[in-house]
Amino acid sequence: MRNRMHGRILLLAVVALGFAAVIASAGAPPEGAAGAQVPRKDYLSPLEADQIRDAPTVNDRVRLFLGFAADRLRKIDYELTRKEKDRPWRERMASLINAYSGCVDDAADALEGGLQKQENLRGGVKEMDKRTKEFLPKLTDLRDTPQLADFKEDLEDAIQATQDAAKTAQDVAKEISAAPERRKPS
Fold first, then answer.
1. Residue 121 in contact with residue 59, Cβ under 8 Å?
2. In a domain? residue 2
3. Residue 14, in any domain of the structure
4. Residue 39 lies in a domain
5. What is the pLDDT of residues 105-143, one digit of tens each?
6. Is the pTM of this model over 0.70?
7. Dihedral through CA 67, CA 69, CA 72, CA 77, nearest 10?
8. Sign of torsion over alpha carbons 64, 65, 67, 72
9. Alpha carbon 147 to chain centroid, angstroms
């Protein structure tokens, strides 16, 4: 009798937990709803993710993503100067290289999304063009660095992401129609 009683209590507890889960999920906004939070990219710090989320325009988001990518390249340079190259060093390097690629990819995606929304993207395109021209020689040098021989594939991916972003900037620039300039009244 005691075992049956414990079984019923356990069953009631499981049902109650399931019911609570259903109620909790019913109050959550559907995925993609306006009130839903944007998931944080795992390669961005919470502060960086907040800055991206709070950026008012696509151009601002592109500048931020490219700034974060430049920061990752500076951190890679710093890691190369460290004397101790232990296992955490290898993990940090792989993480930094992949984070760089993610930032550049997201900057290009932001430009493409802004194009679909017909936003003014001239500033973002200009920044993307300028930064990718800075990043490509740096990445090529890193790829040829003997200390980073184990990361050659990741660096190739980073170079490809940068080249793709540069092409996206060119494509978006072609799509942007020249807006008429208004003259000041004389």
1. yes
2. no
3. no
4. no
5. 999 999 998 888 888 888 999 999 999 999 999 999 999
6. yes
7. -90
8. positive
9. 26
